[in-house]
Amino acid sequence: MKYLFLILFILTYSFGYSQKKILQTKFTTDNITIDGKLDESIWQSTPEATDFIMFQPDNGKPIAENKKTIVKVLYDNDAIYVAALLYDDEPDKIRKEISQRDSFGVSDLFGVFINAFNDGQQDFQFFVNAADGQADCITTNTNGEDYSWDAIWKSKALITDFGWVVEMRIPYAALRFSGEQKQTWGLNFFREVKRDRQKYTWNFIDSKIANSTQQNGILEGIENIKPPTRLFLLPYSSFYVNGNGHQKTVGTLKGGLDIKYGINDAFTLDAILIPDFGQTKYDDQILNLGPFEQQFNENRPFFTEGTDLFSKGDLVYSRRIGGRPSTHPTTAENETVIDNPAGVDLINALKVSGRTKDGLGIGILNAVTKRTFAKIENTDTQETRRQEVEPLSNYNVLVLDQRFRRNSAVSFINTNVTRNGSFRDANVSALVWDLNTMKNTYNLSGNFKYSYVNDIVDKKGVYTSLNFGETSGQYRYSVGADLVTKDFDNNDLGINFETNYYSVYGNVNYRILNPTKLFNTFRINYNMYTQFHKETGKIQGNNINVNLNLDTKKNHYVGFGVNIAPVESYDFYEARAENRYVILPESYDAWLYISTNYNNKFAFDFNPSYSVFNETKRRTYEFTLGPRYRFNDKFSLVYNFEFLRKNNNKGYVDSVDGDTNNSTPETIIFANRNVITYGNSLSGKYSISSKMNFNVAVRQYWSYAENKNFLYLKQDGRLEDYQNYNTNKDSSFYSWNFDLSYSWWFAPGSQVSVLYRNNAADFDREINKDFRKNITNLLNNDALNHTFSISVKYFIDYNSLKNKI
User: Among 218-232, 363-377, 592-606, which stretch is predicted with the lowest mean pLDDT?
Assistant: First the structure.
């Protein structure tokens, strides 16, 4: 008999959670007040969701009785209502750091995951923390969590003598669902006990299966609701004061309107009229010595919110829209450029996105930019002229993404840039697939991309890849290959650095699925990658990597790894010339990463690395140190220091006409140099409440490259001493950025933002190693640019306005 009970226990524990839980909801005509008190009588008779199960770290373990969690759901004609009772036998230990929207901080958390089409493809997730803060995101298995998406909904969290309580009202306008009379929704609830770093869900999410969006439970009982008219208006007005030591202080008043309109139950139109991106975060510029441009993060809200469809195929780099002009001004010998705009103004932009109940996702993004001119001066006559460097231009993206069998998708993507007149046009199309077996155990993914550029000389190119892997269990693996032709070019609306190669790669990894006596999580990876030049077959890149990542029982994160490039490789990019390459030596490097538990008031991140090259005295040292301190639930500071030193680094500096030492038409000059970088940053926040926050961000950066001697590149890719070059090619770049901001969400979706910013940057060929003087040279009125701005945005919901009228 005891063996029978043992077998039943094993079967229950192993398979009892595989069935989807079902929760019944009730219709209400009561006026539910979102105050966290749950004093409306209908809550007492509403069915309960209970028996939560641990997701991390001990996957599958039932929640303890002293952390019992009870959730109820109601609905009316306009919204669904969620009430959660989160028991805790030590309510005074509940973590409740106050933070701004979409930032969890060190707080206990409750979340609701809703998939109103119940297709296992996309969740709308709504979170409330114990400090009464909100966060929301759209989650797909392919792209993960997208917190740039923001909805308008109400919530209230209260700490009680038995734990804490959450009450939420999520209007139908924040969701997507069909017009069917009887609704069946995918649903899950989430709870995190922050001090224990434990995460629970109502319907079990099996960590052996990579796809979490398919593991929701079921919500039944919603009937006779209609998708609302989704029309939202966001008028805004901004006032800017700009000044520096070289121009008079000027005030500018701006205004505009954002529109969000639900075309039907699946698709939404977003449009911006008279854009204003004056309060976006600054870019972290660096001293870029490499052959490729620096890639920047997108900080403009319109291009970050709800863009999961447009990330398909990795063809869109939205910083191209409104970025630098596509051409450079041409000048005569007696002319000089006195004004060359760093960016192009955006006239307007719109996007249409959504997904039908049959799983077809459609995304359309369109933007139009202004004609842009450079100003050129004749140095003899001082006369000036204008030259068009960017015409009126149209940027367009089309995405068709068909999901099927709940866990797979095939997508078609097209990007197009059309410039007025004789300027360059470009078109890129891609077919992308992500196929999973029914049990989510194996994955086959890949793409085929084709680019066509209409320029002085037309170019056509192909980029294709294929990857196969096992995606479940403790042991997993993947293998793949890429092929990119020489003329593949998606850089008009995307970003791509390397072409003309084929590569093969593989990965094998092992992980624990439940905690052991020593670790909460543990994973070890073995990766191999080799890239070949397509035309010659020479190895362009090779790497063997072994890394290990783990969480200790005290929730400290540790990672370390080793990278080996065991053979020489041929770099066809650094030489900056057609069919020329430089040979890179074998290299070996190791790194360590430690991140202590952020639950503690004091925590830090530490990341040192060391690289050795098979070349005399060529070494690289790097480390970052990031201490952080949380003074209380309102105030915290994070400091980060970065140091990088490259000894005897070899890099391109110039090209000159051929000489007697080299029979080629031009001589490519490299430098043997030391590169040193210092970076300091400080960020802090003071939160009066979850709706009112002060933030500060400071960044100081200095990097310089000091050339020791010059070399020329031989035809065989080797470098040799070069004595006939004495031009100063040292580089020193300093930058300073300071942002102080105040944000107040005075009504749902409505915000007042006040920002003071100053910044300065300087590039010099002369290296001054007086660190203090370099800083003070930037912190003076002649160097600094000052901006003070106030922006007011007011959210108008057509449905609320209609009801009031």
Answer: 218-232
- Which amino acid would we find at residue 21? K
Determine how β-strand 217-223 pairs with β-strand 22-24: parallel
Instruction: Say how far apart CA 432 and CA 411 lie, in whole Å.
Output: 5
Count of Cβ atoms closer than 10 Å to residue 268 Cβ: 17
Q: Are 360 and 401 in contact (CB under 8 A)?
A: yes
Q: Decide if 329 contacts 317 (C-beta within 8 A).
A: no
List the strands of the sheet with 372-378, edge to edge: 335-339, 372-378, 384-390
Torsion of CA 59, 60, 66, 67, to 10 degrees: 60
Most distant CA pair in the chain, distance: 106
3-state secondary structure 283-331: CCCCCCCCCCCCCCCCCCHHHHCCCCHHHHHHCCCHHHCCCCCCCCCCC
CB 416, CB 494: distance < 8 Å? no
For residue 75, give both structure tokens. Answer: 């609905």
* Amino acid making up residue 43: W
Grouping H, G, I as helix, E, B as strand and the rest as coil, residue 774 is: helix
- How far is the first Cα of the chain from the last one, in angstroms, to the nearest whole number? 71
- Cross-strand bridge partners of residue 651: 671
- pLDDT at residue 528 above 50? yes
CA dist 779 and 786 (Å) reads: 11
Q: Where are the beta strands (DSSP E) in 517-568?
A: 519-533, 539-552, 557-565
Distance CA 786, CA 739 (A): 10
Count other C-beta atoms under 10 Å from residue 104's C-beta. Answer: 17
Strands (E), 748-794: 750-764, 785-793
Rounded Cα gap, residues 299 and 279, in angstroms: 9
Residue type, 190: F
CA–CA separation, 450 vs 431, rounded Å? 9
pTM (2 decimals)?
0.88
Of 104, 80, 71, nearest in space to 188 by CA: 71
Q: Are 63 and 51 in contact (CB under 8 A)?
A: yes
SS3 for 397-441 is EEEEEEEECCCEEEEEEEEEEEECCCCCEEEEEEEEEEEECCCCC
CB 356 within 8 A of CB 176: no
pLDDT digits (tens, 9 = 90+) for 530-558: 999 999 999 999 999 999 999 999 999 99
**Among 59-73, 270-284, 291-305, the range of highest mean pLDDT:** 59-73
What is the phi/psi pair of residue 279, to 5°? Answer: -105, 15
Burial of 74 from C-beta contacts in 10 A (0-12 / 13-18 / 19+): buried
Question: Hey, how many other C-beta atoms are within 10 angstroms of the C-beta on 780?
Answer: 10
Structure tokens at 493: 């609306």
CA distance 585 to 569: 7
Sign of CA dihedral 269, 274, 278, 283: positive
Q: Which of 27-36, 250-259, 370-379, 509-518 has the lowest mean pLDDT?
A: 250-259
Distance CA 144, CA 212 (A): 10
Helix (H, G, I), strand (E, B) or coil at 695: strand
CB distance 258 to 270 below 8 Å: yes
